[in-house]
Amino acid sequence: MKKILIINGHPNRNSFNFGLSASYKKGAIAAGADIKEIVIRDLNFNPNLQFGYQKRTELEADLLDAWEKIKWAEHLVWIHPVWWGGLPAISKGFIDRLFLSGFAFSVSSKFCLVG
Known about the structure:
The chain is an alpha/beta fold. The protein has one domain: Flavodoxin domain (Rossmann fold). Helix content is about 30%, strand content about 15%. The chain is built from three helices and three strands. It has a three-stranded parallel β-sheet, with helices on both faces.
């Protein structure tokens, strides 16, 4: 059974993206997948990376829970609109706050993910 995490980054629960998410979930369950979801708009966290990467801000409980779901998953499905060529601010803040060096990846002298 495939472990799938659906990450919905649309800030409006009445959006087309929520319909897409529900349809994907229904189809994946019918195919035998184990599903978990993150609805970013429902999380309690500060999306602002207040100090940039100079000073770490402690992760809120909802972000720690989201990270556990991400580690659990074998497959991630990101659902979000593209506004002005980018993600909605809440989705961007989720990524900025959660996918940090030393947490989501490590930087070494041989390989660097930060450009």
